[in-house]
Task: inverse folding
């Protein structure tokens, strides 16, 4: 047809590209203690300029600029990693790319080097965690930056089963993300593999799995939606009557439900009994105060091999060899800075947690206060997503046991005395009330609400029911025991 043809147009747009070194820095910040050493050893294998110092060494290598003899100290200064702010990390990565483009632009060797490195990383046999598996899918999802941020936050809020650790409204409050944005992010997350991820409880997870199988309108789904209590008690005749189905059809539907995965995230656990290595300890000191102790023993001490550093000062090297050594040196320095920055960030966050939650360390869970990541981020001087990544899969040893660092971040309420009370403290109190009840006359949600009110905590009955479900406590009629 006339008028049709090809046309060239220009379009200006902005996008965030995570280059290899930035991804490496984020990975080092996010991995737990037991995985960090493995991650570092992988880098040692791929970079000949890096070597491990004896474990009794005092600290990560902090030698003077290796390029001082070659007149490139100004270039090396661009790579100083002294600010944990995510935007600074991004700007530093852009500086690195600018230098790389100016110094090595377009050479075939650079592409080969990149491909060899990528092949090495892809050949590793280490287990992929649930969070890594979901983050890969999130980064491939064509959504707005705000929704992707919500996806990352939700992924960091999943427990080992793949369930959300709090309600969506509590998470939105804690992350300071608009509820609508987080809801959109959750809709995307619940379509990821494995199916059933991102549910608030077992019933929702099973329904998501049925929907993924195309059984969202099946009898099995209707039983889960409307007859869940009867299903728990396996009252098949009652279910058949209420769903206007035959007993055989109900049994077939229950068989389908029994084939679903009650813990879809557990398949990513490398071992059934994983050893937890705390990244930091908060312990009493001799003066009656508190001390924050970082656990650095598991981190290999790195330095740049002096032989290769001396080779850079020789004029006999070809430009190709010199460029290779210079690039590996930069990568090595960036890795060491990333490790050092990881430890500093975790330590600063731990100190602020101690400041805000000192009553918890003194008296226990009952004194846990509401705390948001935004509060810590503002004090530490980083973005909320940096705090979220820094505490992901990290653990803190306290006088009351070992806790995930994200345990200390929780919304809450104000009691009658004006004291802030976290929802974890309220849940702990509900658990105590149920444990102390008479099994023959268990407390109703209304009675639990009144008992909390007697202690100055006023919350709605529906909130009691929600927290009871999250604690895995059955309703009153299912808790009743007859002698």
Result:
């Amino acid at each position: 047809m006339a008028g049709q043809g090809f046309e060239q147009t220009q379009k200006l747009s902005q996008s965030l590209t995570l280059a290899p070194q930035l991804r490496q820095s984020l990975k080092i910040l996010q991995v737990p203690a037991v995985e960090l050493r493995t991650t570092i050893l992988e880098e040692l294998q791929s970079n000949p300029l890096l070597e491990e110092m004896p474990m009794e060494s005092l600290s990560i290598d902090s030698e003077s600029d290796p390029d001082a003899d070659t007149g490139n100290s100004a270039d090396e200064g661009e790579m100083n990693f002294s600010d944990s702010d995510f935007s600074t990390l991004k700007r530093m990565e852009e500086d690195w790319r600018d230098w790389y483009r100016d110094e090595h632009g377009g050479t075939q060797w650079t592409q080969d080097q990149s491909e060899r490195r990528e092949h090495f990383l892809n050949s590793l046999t280490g287990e992929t965690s649930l969070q890594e598996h979901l983050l890969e899918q999130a980064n491939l999802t064509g959504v707005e930056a705000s929704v992707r941020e919500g996806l990352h936050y939700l992924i960091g809020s999943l427990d080992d089963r793949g369930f959300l650790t709090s309600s969506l409204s509590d998470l939105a409050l804690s992350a300071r993300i608009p509820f609508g944005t987080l809801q959109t992010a959750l809709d995307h997350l619940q379509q990821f593999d494995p199916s059933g991820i991102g549910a608030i409880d077992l019933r929702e997870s099973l329904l998501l799995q049925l929907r993924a199988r195309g059984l969202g309108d099946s009898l099995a789904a209707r039983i889960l939606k409307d007859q869940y209590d009867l299903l728990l008690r396996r009252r098949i005749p009652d279910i058949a009557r209420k769903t206007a189905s035959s007993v055989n059809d109900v049994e077939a539907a229950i068989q389908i439900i029994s084939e679903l995965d009650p813990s879809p995230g557990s398949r990513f656990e490398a071992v059934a009994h994983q050893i937890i290595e705390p990244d930091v300890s908060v312990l009493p000191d001799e003066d009656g105060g508190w001390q924050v102790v970082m656990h650095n023993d598991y981190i290999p001490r790195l330095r740049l091999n002096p032989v290769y550093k001396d080779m850079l000062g020789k004029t006999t090297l070809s430009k190709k060899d010199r460029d290779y050594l210079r690039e590996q040196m930069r990568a090595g320095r960036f890795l060491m800075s990333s490790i050092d920055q990881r430890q500093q960030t975790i330590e600063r966050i731990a100190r602020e947690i101690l400041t805000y939650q000192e009553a918890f360390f003194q008296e226990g869970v009952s004194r846990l206060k509401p705390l948001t990541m935004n509060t810590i981020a503002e004090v530490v001087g980083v973005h909320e997503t940096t705090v979220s990544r820094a505490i992901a899969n990290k653990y803190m040893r306290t006088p009351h046991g070992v806790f995930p660092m994200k345990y200390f971040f929780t919304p809450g309420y104000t009691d009658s005395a004006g004291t802030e009370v976290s929802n974890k403290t309220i849940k702990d109190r509900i658990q105590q009330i149920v444990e102390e009840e008479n099994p023959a006359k268990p407390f109703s949600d209304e009675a639990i609400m009144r008992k909390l009110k007697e202690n100055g905590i006023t919350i709605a009955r529906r909130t009691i029911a929600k927290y009871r479900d999250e604690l895995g406590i059955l309703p009153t009629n299912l808790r009743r025991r007859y002698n």
User: Anything to note?
Assistant: The CA atoms of residues 51 and 303 lie 6 Å apart. The first strand starts at residue 50 and ends at 53.
